[in-house]
Design brief:
The chain is an alpha+beta fold. It has 6 helices and 3 strands, in the order H-H-H-H-H-E-E-E-H.
Length: 203
């Protein structure tokens, strides 16, 4: 075996090993995050099992928190106790905001919940020019030091697609954010167009 062949084989083995490690690392991170999310609403599980049961006061802080809002809604829906979920958070926008925060927390994305997040606008796409439309909700967010994304200041995040009859907390299949897409460089319409063409249409 000559030196060139040995180098090629070694390189291929290294790439395969790295890819396998990365896949394992991502899966491990995802599992860890899922456990953390369940643990965050553990007090609700425990209170629901008591003779007193859950109250609206118990639910409120979990609905206010970006990282527990979505899971709290789903848990109450499963229990048949959605009347306990605060009305002010039972909206498409509040659900989309929580979905974006949870997506950004994933290790392969921002790996953190934003320190600030603000709703910008809805962008609608006409699919065929005959009134068949879908909607995307656009937010801007930022993180504080020492996070590596601090330099980007306000970053755009897109959640959707939604339809005219979508309900709050319907699962948005094309939630996405390109960290380099900052409000001073990209318009909400441009970012939605990119997400629609490169994420939504490829699923």
């Amino acid at each position: 075996m000559d030196l060139t062949t040995l180098i090629v084989i070694t390189t291929i083995v290294f790439i395969i090993a790295f890819a396998a490690f990365r896949l394992f690392d991502v899966k491990k991170g995802k599992k860890k995050l899922e456990l953390e999310r369940s643990a965050r609403i553990l007090p609700l599980y425990k209170k629901a099992e008591t003779t007193v049961g859950l109250t609206a006061e118990d639910v409120l802080p979990f609905a206010q928190n970006l990282l527990t809002r979505h899971d709290t809604f789903l848990y109450l829906k499963e229990l048949g106790e959605l009347h306990l979920f605060p009305e002010e958070y039972h909206t498409l926008i509040k659900g989309a905001e929580s979905s974006l925060a949870q997506w950004l927390e994933f290790p392969t994305e921002l790996d953190a919940c934003p320190d600030e997040i603000e709703y910008i606008k809805r962008v609608t796409i006409d699919l065929n020019g005959r009134g068949n439309v879908i909607h995307y909700e656009v937010f801007k967010y930022r993180v504080n030091p020492p996070h590596w994304a601090t330099e980007y200041v306000w970053i755009l995040g897109v959640v959707g697609p939604f339809f005219d009859d979508s309900n709050p907390y319907d699962f948005p299949t094309a939630t996405f954010s390109r960290v380099s897409s900052t409000v001073d460089k990209v318009t909400p319409e441009e970012e939605v167009k990119w997400v629609h063409e490169n994420i939504a249409m490829k699923r």
